[in-house]
Specification:
mainly alpha; 5 helices
Length: 164
């Protein structure tokens, strides 16, 4: 088992414990609120069936607010993650463009050892990028996949020429 797997397992366990403690706290707060509401309604002389309806309405309202809050938080986190992935994809694209320029510029270097060293470094960086971000595609490629026009004949796609 790798260190990453251990950290992920520990993080999942910590999240599960926190979720259980939060659930217990919400249950206790609900039980206390129910007791307080029941006592108050009985002191006010409200009949039992009316008290049950009022309690159900209050519990439903509180539940709706809690579920709505959790849903809003999940949607917010999803949007933040989407924006971060767009930044990663754009950075990936920019680094790959720089690698293409470096790889293409090696044709003007006469020393074969230097060329081999540069191309080896470019390959290592490219392999690292592909392993870190296997599904991250540049925004231009995503737009082309969505039906937006790609590069024209006057501006050729540099990736096709260099193989990256």
């Amino acid at each position: 088992m790798s260190l990453d797997e251990l950290f992920r397992r520990e993080a999942r366990m910590r999240a599960a414990v926190i979720a259980l403690l939060l659930l217990l706290a919400v249950w206790c707060a609900g039980a206390l609120a129910h007791l307080a509401l029941t006592t108050t309604l009985m002191r006010l002389g409200v009949r039992m069936w009316s008290a049950i309806y009022i309690q159900a309405a209050v519990a439903g309202s509180i539940g709706a607010v809690l579920v709505g809050s959790v849903l809003a938080l999940v949607l917010y986190r999803r949007e933040v993650l989407r924006r971060q992935l767009e930044v990663v994809a754009e950075l990936n694209h920019q680094v790959r463009n720089a690698l293409e320029i470096i790889a293409a510029s090696t044709t003007r270097i006469a020393d074969r050892k230097t060329v081999a060293t540069i191309l080896e470094a470019v390959t290592r960086i490219d392999v690292t990028l592909r392993s870190l971000f296997p599904v991250a595609r540049p925004l231009k490629k995503r737009a082309a996949a969505a039906g937006a026009p790609g590069p024209t004949k006057s501006e050729p796609d540099s990736r096709a020429a260099s193989g990256f």
